[in-house]
Write a sequence for this structure.
């Protein structure tokens, strides 16, 4: 690549933001940050790099492959931030003595990964998380925050799919973890043939097999979920999701949510409860992903409850192109010409009065 | 383009004829008019896109089409992740390692003893599949990526072997090559963009149920 080409481009997967694009990103960021603060969340800033060794044991092979690493001058392998939830969890796990209370934090930052056909990609996540020793209704809080934030961004045409990985963790408790994750992946990809093969290979009872198959294709309302024909032993495994669903319905969110037992994650081994994604017409990837992920903290060596979600800015910005959520104040133009001192005095005075100005320079 | 239509990406070429004949059985008509790149089935509210075989996963991944019909080999090579909603009852093909008969023993001997003096050169369209397959078998390979006339590679000394789809084996025979080992089978899959599926799952499930029941 010659110098001029390099000058005109940035490396593949990266994207500069300019004018309208930067204004949109900035206004989304401000809107969501202010909203998270209203709910009592504090900001957290994670480092852009960290030691790969800390994360490597808890990464899947795919994740390990898709991270960007380099060796520093001391010979340590350094990982470029690939997920904020993960980096934030390590930050909290490493400061555990300081963390007796319920922590509620939000963030807004970039992550880098290799994804899709091995190209490098810079992503931007804005999200919030709750981490604590004991949870009661924290999932409801997080889901309420998410659903209440959508009107602020003028997102109307969407649906939130909520699943619960603990259902399968309980149902298939007897299986080795590796086999469980293979089955969860087949369910997530709605790959019925692979699922049938895996269920047969694992010598499960007919009841468990049938319940697993029934669950794997279910998408529907709360009452449909409650009336699924599971065996008596399996039924209680749905209690968690049904209880959350009942509260969400009573809060008036019935139209916005769908229960979906194939709603799982590529990172199933971090999650131990609800998993959810927000889908919207006009974008080809989820706008939001989130869930309950105590297991991530267990992997990091501490016992904590955790739940949260992230907006993915790429699809969000695609959806919101042309919108601007920043405050619309009048701007006063101040001409700097023959007597600059007076013009600057005026400008300084107006800004001190909290007014918005734009200095215009004469010839 | 109307939003009421469910868009399905179909691969042009031989597979399209089979797909068309298959859908016709259930009163779903697909007409490929010359030079037109899409076709609307008004009755079933379906829109079909006719695209190059290897581009089907691209259209589905980027959400231009909600569904795609494509060989599992092409889906795998794309590296994208899709929902795998079903398999069509035709188009199953073997994916094979092929070469000259004289190299067969050499390959199996080295294979059984695990003693490869040098990496074997394989020409193929299926670089990702071939690399993964031989890596798992601890056989060092060098991939030479070609997009057509793969059989020429060993004849011209470009590679030791080829990995390609083999239906009848006629093309191999005509070039004095033969199947050395079957590495897997490819199938014709119905794939879906995960997000678009979640937004329109009722309609998509209906279509897939129709297809499944037709088998």
């Amino acid at each position: 690549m010659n110098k001029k080409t390099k000058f005109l481009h940035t490396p593949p997967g990266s994207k500069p933001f300019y004018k309208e694009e930067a204004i949109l990103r900035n206004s989304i960021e401000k809107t969501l940050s202010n909203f998270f603060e209203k709910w009592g969340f504090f900001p957290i800033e994670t480092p852009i790099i960290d030691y790969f060794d800390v994360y490597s044991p808890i990464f899947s092979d795919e994740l390990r492959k898709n991270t960007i690493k380099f060796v520093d001058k001391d010979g340590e392998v350094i990982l470029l931030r690939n997920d904020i939830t993960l980096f934030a969890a390590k930050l909290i796990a490493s400061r555990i003595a300081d963390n007796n209370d319920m922590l509620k934090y939000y963030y807004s930052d970039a992550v880098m990964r290799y994804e899709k056909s091995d190209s490098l990609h810079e992503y931007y996540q804005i999200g919030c998380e709750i981490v604590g020793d004991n949870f009661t209704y924290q999932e409801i809080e997080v889901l309420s925050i998410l659903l209440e934030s959508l009107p602020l961004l003028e997102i109307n045409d969407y649906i939130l799919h909520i699943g619960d990985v603990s259902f399968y963790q309980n149902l298939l408790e007897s299986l080795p973890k590796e086999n469980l994750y293979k089955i969860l992946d087949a369910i997530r990809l709605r790959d019925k043939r692979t699922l049938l093969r895996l269920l047969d290979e694992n010598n499960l009872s007919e009841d468990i097999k049938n319940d697993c198959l029934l669950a794997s294709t279910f998408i529907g309302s709360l009452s449909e979920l409650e009336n699924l024909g599971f065996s008596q032993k399996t039924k209680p495994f749905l209690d968690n999701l049904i209880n959350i669903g009942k509260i969400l319905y009573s809060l008036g969110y019935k139209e916005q949510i769908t229960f979906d037992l194939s709603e799982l994650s590529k990172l199933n081994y971090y999650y131990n409860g609800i998993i959810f994604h927000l889908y919207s017409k006009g974008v080809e990837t989820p706008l939001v992903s989130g869930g309950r992920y105590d297991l991530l903290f267990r992997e990091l060596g501490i016992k904590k409850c955790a739940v949260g979600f992230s907006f993915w800015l790429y699809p969000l910005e695609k959806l919101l192109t042309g919108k601007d959520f920043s405050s619309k104040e009048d701007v006063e133009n101040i001409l700097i010409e023959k007597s600059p001192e007076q013009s600057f005095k005026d400008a300084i005075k107006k800004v001190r009065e909290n007014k918005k100005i734009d200095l215009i320079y004469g010839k | 383009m109307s939003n009421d239509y469910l868009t399905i990406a179909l691969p042009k070429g031989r597979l399209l004829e089979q797909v068309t004949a298959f859908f016709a059985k259930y009163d779903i008509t697909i007409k490929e008019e010359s030079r037109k790149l899409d076709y609307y089935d008004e009755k079933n509210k379906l829109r079909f896109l006719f695209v190059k075989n290897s581009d089907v996963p691209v259209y589905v991944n980027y959400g231009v089409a909600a569904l795609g019909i494509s060989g599992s080999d092409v889906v795998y090579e794309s590296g994208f992740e899709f929902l795998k909603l079903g398999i069509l009852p035709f188009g199953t093909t073997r994916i094979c390692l092929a070469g000259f008969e004289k190299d067969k023993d050499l390959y199996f001997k080295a294979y059984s003893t695990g003693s490869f003096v040098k990496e074997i050169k394989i020409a193929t369209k299926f670089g990702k599949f071939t690399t993964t397959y031989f890596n798992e078998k601890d056989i060092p390979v060098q991939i030479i990526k070609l997009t057509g006339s793969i059989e020429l590679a060993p004849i011209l000394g470009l590679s030791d072997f080829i990995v390609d789809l083999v239906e009848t084996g006629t093309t191999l025979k005509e070039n004095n090559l033969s199947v050395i080992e079957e590495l897997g089978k490819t199938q014709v899959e119905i794939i879906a963009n995960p997000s678009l599926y979640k937004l329109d799952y009722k309609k998509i499930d209906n279509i897939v149920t129709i297809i499944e029941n037709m088998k």
Observations:
- The two ends of chain A are 41 Å apart (CA to CA).
- Chain A touches chain B at residues 116-118, 159, 161, 189-194, 219, 260, 277, 279-281, 283-286 (CB under 8 Å).
- Chain A has a mean pLDDT of 91.
- Chain A is about 40% helix and 25% strand.
